[in-house]
Amino acid sequence: MRLAPLASTLAVAVLVAACGRFGGSEPVRGGVAPLQPQPIAPVAAQPLPPPVVAPVTPVAPAPVDTAALTPNEPTAATAVEIRKPDLSGGWKLASAGENCQLFMNLTSWTGGYRANTRGCASDELKSIGAWDLDGKQVVLKDASGSVVATLYASAATRFSGQTAISKRGIQVFR
């Protein structure tokens, strides 16, 4: 009866020993001996030659149709019909010479849905934290729900309006 514990102890010892690896003074992994380090040649240092600069021929800018860039300000009567899913995603935002990005999504939040800006310089545009759609009017709001700007769609991917505090023109487009 004392042979059973001795046999089980011996079996465990054999299994533990079988799990170990023996390879002399250096361990052998996967049956392959490790590679010996190779000598490294010294690195030569020398200055780079000056860059080659190709001559540039100036090109006259193409004429710009300013009427296409500044359409008439849309109103509630002339605005394009839009839906909330149409507004979701990334937009370019321009206001008083400032250009940055506006991101709107359909996550419910204070005053409507989440929004945020990136790269805006003015505190007014940096404060945008929400948006909502009131009929055909897009309302941009700050985190407390106060109106930052109101816009109407002049096209499916272009909105124009005015900021609430500074009364600056504002465009949102893709």
Automatic annotation (TrEMBL):
* Domain Alkaline proteinase inhibitor/ Outer membrane lipoprotein Omp19 residue range list: 82-164
GO molecular function per UniProt: endopeptidase inhibitor activity
- Pfam family membership, one: Inh
The answer to keyword Membrane applying to this record is: yes
Q: The organism sits in which domain of life? A: Bacteria
According to its UniProt record, where is this protein located?
Cell outer membrane
Keywords, ordered alphabetically: Cell outer membrane, Lipoprotein, Membrane, Palmitate, Signal
| GO cellular component terms listed in the entry, alphabetical order | cell outer membrane
In what way does this protein cross or attach to the membrane? Lipid-anchor
In terms of InterPro entries, this protein maps to: Inh/Omp19, OM_lipoprot_Omp19_bac, Protease_inh_B-barrel_dom
Q: Where is the signal peptide?
A: 1-17
Chief location of this protein within or outside the cell: membrane
Protein family according to the UniProt entry: Belongs to the rhizobiaceae omp19 lipoprotein family.
Question: In its UniProt entry, what is this protein called?
Answer: Protease inhibitor Inh
